[in-house]
């Protein structure tokens, strides 16, 4: 096997197709060949905000501007080679995937966010054998590559959903849509979903949203109140609110100012789960305090969420394929990475080697 490979790598702040060293599996690791890998907003965040990786004391993200970092953490791959000290569970050629974490030298890296943990934007990358799971051969590799995206929604709904609330999902990119799908999987009776994009609102319907909102038509929370309470009028009296459904907001935009707007306009006692991860935002802590807002940032998915989602996707209980708007080869990957930033881009563009 050649000791180099083609990969779209990040170096000195620039993403380009390069010839770089093929990774060599260490103890407990396996070498895999990329079959499909999706472009995620987290890849954009890693590239655009190196200060986040530089400040990560866990060492899971590594800021290494002068080295090649091969991103890509939503993948389906083929087993090529076992490293030393492995159990050799599957035949060479088996399709595999894994939670995007790699054990290296006693520590752990997020795959695709460190030079020693290359991801799926190259021809080959590494997995920890203990995290890997075999995959069936009769499912599209693009669908199998989207487990990680769907697992985010599975996590947020596990910690956020209960039967008394009427959830509101704001922002219908891949993560917002995964939240919609997971809410319906968990039995939510009325899911309200908001986005300015008609195509994304249509996708939300496909994933099970009961009410879709165009914020350009009427204020978002006015429309939420109409769906949840049957009356669009705001209610500030806590006694009157006691008879109305509470609101749980899943913020999935990553746009500065959205979180502040939610806090200003949501009902008293709202719980907000912020999955969007805007680079910075300014919120009114006084307003949040007066309303008794419960705000949670990030935090998932946990390993159990990831593998539960994998089982759902493999069994057909959860189908992420509507997220896929385009597939590209390695020669078009760097350009697709930039196009994926646009608000009108499909929720997922997937690099495939077919």
Number of helices: 12
Helix share, percent: 25-40%
Order of helices and strands: EEEHHEEEEEEHHEHEHEHHEHEHEHEHE
Structural class: alpha/beta
Uncertain spans, ≥5 residues at pLDDT below 50?
Answer: none
CATH superfamily of the largest domain, please?
A: Medium-chain alcohol dehydrogenases, catalytic domain
Global morphology: elongated
Number of domains: 2
The major β-sheet equals: 7 strands, mixed
CATH class of the largest domain: Alpha Beta
CATH topology annotation of the largest domain: Quinone Oxidoreductase, Chain A, domain 1
Rg is: 21 Å
Beta-strand content estimate: 25-35%
Number of strands: 17
> In whole angstroms, how far apart are the ends?
20 Å
**Could you say what the CATH architecture of the largest domain is?**
Alpha-Beta Complex
Mean pLDDT: 95
Question: Can you tell me about this structure?
Answer:
With 354 residues, the protein is an alpha/beta fold. It folds into two domains: 4-146 and 320-352, Alpha-Beta Complex (Quinone Oxidoreductase, Chain A, domain 1); 149-297, Rossmann fold, CATH 3.40.50. It has helices at residues 41-48, 50-54, 141-144, 147-160, 174-185, 198-206, 220-229, 238-241, 258-265, 285-291, 303-315, 333-339, and strands at 4-11, 14-21, 29-38, 74-82, 95-98, 101-104, 107-110, 124-128, 132-134, 166-170, 192-194, 211-213, 247-251, 271-274, 294-297, 324-328, 348-352. The strands form four sheets. Strands 3, 4, 5, 8, 9, 16 and 17 form a seven-stranded mixed sheet that branches. Strands 12-11-10-13-14-15 form a six-stranded parallel sheet, with helices on both faces. A two-stranded antiparallel sheet has the order 1-2. β11, α6 and β12 form a beta-alpha-beta unit. α4 (147-160) packs across α5 (174-185) and α4 (147-160) crosses α11 (303-315). The protein is elongated, with a radius of gyration of 21 Å. The mean pLDDT is 95.
